[in-house]
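Private note to self, pasted from the team thread so I don't lose it. Backbone tokens:
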């Protein structure tokens, strides 16, 4: 028998019954709450789960049934997904019984690294919008589309380095963030992109006077690309360096990484880059950092009034979903992402679609498909 109905008191119990009969690869077809009999109004709540084995059987009957089930593909939920969702709070029991179609979507948001509360709120709102449209007689698409729409609402991408500069003064962009997140490397990648591909006049300034060799690191990239590079020790030095670079289209300023708990260094940095020079600030965060630490770093670096986010090291995690938590908590557009150590290749200037596919993990899925594509990078600028 390919399909079977299981009755249980809760999802967890139903899942263990399904697993016992069909094994860990079982697929869940539907769930529902069993209505109470009027003769037994005080009986315990019971649920019903319809499941099938995970691997199709080789006979024609099973194949015919699988074709039928293929039509429901998006509605099928693996036992693993069901267990991961059933273990959460947030009224999951109701979602599983009343909005079964959303369980797979919820599990997939969780797998991409979006927090439980955010994933739940996205799916909940998507279900609500879909029901509202149905009630109003509007044509509705799949729930998946409503979920995507809900995710898109939170994200914004902005190519901050594209603007044509007719103002006569260079666009000055400073990159700040915790230690070792990839500020200098990102500047080198962006400088190469802007100067070699976009034919802009690019200047580099390092105000990192803490780490030994920091200036030399930036300078060596500058010499390879034939770019002008200066070091500044103070606000006055920076003003002087900017004055000498006033013929540039864009000046990229590298700052020293420091702990976001170091208030003194934060104030010092703020006094150098904030002020009347109209310097845009880009907060660089590593995608490998957990959401709590990202949040704390953002709070601390907010004294610099950042204009955009730069998310680095997305190649080092399969869970970029936390970026959605981050951008919805502290709303700023994403200007750049980086996906590797290679300069200048590993740089992405995302549009909204690209950003969403990275957040939802679609890029990584594509990357791990097939050996020829395995070495391919996400997208080059
Ligand atoms: N895997 C990976 N590594 C990266 C990426 N970007 C930078 N790195 C590596 O991260 C390390 C630190 O990079 P830096 O550019 O020196 O970082 P930083 O933020 O300037 O560091 P401090 O100035 O010391 O705060 C280097 O080994 C880089 O090659 C990336 O996108 N992916
Ligand atoms: Mg650096």
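Design output:
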């Amino acid at each position: 028998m390919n399909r079977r109905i299981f009755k249980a008191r809760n999802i967890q119990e139903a899942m263990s019954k399904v697993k016992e009969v069909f094994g860990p690869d079982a697929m869940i077809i539907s769930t529902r709450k069993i209505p109470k009999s009027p003769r037994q109004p005080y009986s315990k709540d019971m649920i019903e789960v319809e499941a099938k084995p995970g691997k199709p059987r080789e006979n024609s009957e099973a194949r015919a049934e699988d074709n039928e089930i293929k039509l429901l593909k998006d509605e099928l939920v693996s036992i693993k997904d069901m267990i991961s969702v059933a273990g959460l709070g947030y009224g999951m029991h109701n979602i599983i019984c009343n909005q079964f179609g959303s369980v797979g979507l919820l599990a997939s948001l969780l797998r991409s690294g979006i927090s439980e509360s955010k994933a739940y709120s996205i799916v909940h709102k998507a279900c609500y919008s879909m029901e509202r449209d149905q009630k109003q007689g509007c044509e509705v698409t799949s729930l998946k589309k409503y979920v995507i729409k809900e995710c898109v609402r939170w994200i914004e991408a902005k190519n901050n380095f594209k603007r044509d500069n007719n103002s006569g003064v260079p666009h000055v962009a400073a990159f700040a963030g915790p230690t070792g997140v990839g500020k200098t490397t990102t500047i080198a990648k962006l400088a190469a992109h802007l100067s070699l591909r976009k034919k802009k006049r690019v200047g580099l300034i390092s105000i990192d006077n803490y780490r030994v060799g920091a200036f030399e690191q930036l300078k060596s990239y500058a010499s390879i690309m034939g770019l002008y590079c200066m070091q500044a020790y103070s606000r006055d030095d920076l003003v002087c360096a900017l004055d000498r670079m006033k013929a540039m289209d864009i000046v990229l300023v590298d700052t020293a990484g420091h702990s976001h708990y170091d208030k003194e260094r934060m104030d010092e940095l703020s006094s150098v880059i904030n002020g009347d020079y109209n310097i845009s600030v880009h907060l660089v965060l590593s995608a490998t950092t957990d959401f709590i630490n990202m949040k704390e770093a953002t709070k601390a670096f907010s004294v610099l009034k950042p204009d955009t986010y730069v998310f680095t090291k997305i190649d080092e995690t399969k869970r970029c979903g936390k970026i959605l938590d981050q951008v919805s908590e502290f709303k700023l557009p994403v200007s750049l992402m980086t996906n590797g150590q290679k300069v200048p290749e590993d740089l992405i200037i995302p549009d909204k679609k690209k950003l969403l596919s990275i957040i939802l993990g679609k890029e990584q899925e594509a990357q791990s498909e097939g050996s020829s594509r395995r070495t391919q990078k996400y997208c080059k600028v």
